[in-house]
């Protein structure tokens, strides 16, 4: 029995006898969760990414990114959609930030588009791009919203992809130049930085499976991209630290999913371990000085070809916080013929729990399990949940969007985060993905993750019920 259930039963038993009326009502009033339960220093926010919301894909001197390039090719994106306009944040940032303030949101996580500030990836700076982010940052601060910047959320300049992109080791220098520009341009006002958004996602989907930009597939693309990305974790972290030694809190973010062996069968456990090593451990462990998890995923020995003398000393970086991004768990079943992993993920619809519009299982305990797994690493100082949320089919009705499933999803996941926090894990923040409906990569505009609804045809915003709930929750 949980503590909440126990409390309820004891309250019911005692009802009418000894409990003061107010207390009884409070105990019976469902197990409501409040922002204040997480402590007064806990950071609350919403998250977005440049390509997914900005639009203005070639406005004011912006260069092409790999996502512009990829989405403009026929057949890559659901319904041939592009984020050329997206949620038009490039033009609507002022009213959107005002709306954030109206919703009591204290922090906004967003990313810088590399090709907006360096159209060719290196060299010539586009001042108008810098000006745009200055306006966004200043507007946030004016509204008492703390900006949290992700340096890289998947939109590499196409000019650099033409030179090999993440496969080319020269990216260590390109990335240093870019992160230095971000630090010098915005570091006087921005205190919270994330080097990457989900390295496993952008290397896996972009360089192994080819379903995301730049659409490359196979091990010969994936492994060099992985190693250069790992090296750039160090490069980005050190560059920010060097230029902003006193003020910056530097983190990075990882996509994480708790892995379980299908039906708990021992025969599925090896494949589970492989999945865990690839999806959860591959990028964090080198940053913690543990090297790549080759022992638990033998295929990672392919990385050896790309590791140079001295690299191992440059892979670790002492991050101030680790961002975890969780949506679902993964159940793994052995299937020998699958390269590298020798297993498959059991489809969410077979698991008996509700599923989201992405086809992802709703399983709140999964976030607790994966937080505990990460909390066990020595060397992680604190954890911020930098993304969590859900896509459901939303339809406006008389100017309102009723999305009880999303509110419940967020509440139930938050309860599990609080559970881990109460057990002593140092979790210091939570960001809903996402502030507004946006361009969900190869799925286009179909999945709606926002707590604010957006109609791309007319760019009208409607605060969904979940957004109204979040605004109220943040007051308590
Ligand atoms: C994460 C991405 C984010 C968004 C959500 C739904 O993997 O970081 O951009 O697409 O998934």
First-last Cα distance: 27 Å
Largest sheet: 8 strands, parallel, barrel
User: Which stretches are low in confidence, meaning pLDDT under 50 for 5 or more residues running?
Assistant: none
Strand line-up across the major sheet: 1-2-3-4-5-7-10-11
Number of helices: 17
Bound molecules: beta-D-fucopyranose
The tally of beta strands, per DSSP, is 13
What is the share of helical residues? Answer: 25-40%
| SS-derived structural category | alpha/beta
The succession of helices and strands, N to C, reads HHEHHHEHHEHHEHHEEHHHEEEHEHEEEH
Task: Walk me through what this model shows.
- The chain is α/β, with parallel strands linked by helices and 476 residues long.
- Helix content is 38%, strand content 14%.
- The protein has helices at 3-14, 21-28, 50-53, 66-71, 89-102, 114-117, 127-142, 158-161, 171-186, 199-208, 219-243, 269-281, 284-287, 311-314, 365-375, 404-422, 465-473; strands at residues 43-47, 107-111, 146-152, 192-196, 249-255, 259-261, 321-325, 330-334, 343-345, 383-387, 427-433, 452-455, 460-463.
- Strands 1-2-3-4-5-7-10-11 form an eight-stranded parallel β-barrel, surrounded by four helices.
- Helix 5 (89-102) packs parallel to helix 7 (127-142), helix 9 runs parallel beside helix 11 and helix 10 runs antiparallel to helix 11 (219-243).
- It is globular and about 55 Å long.
- Residues 49, 52, 197-198, 201, 255, 325, 387, 433, 440-441, 449 line the site of beta-D-fucopyranose.
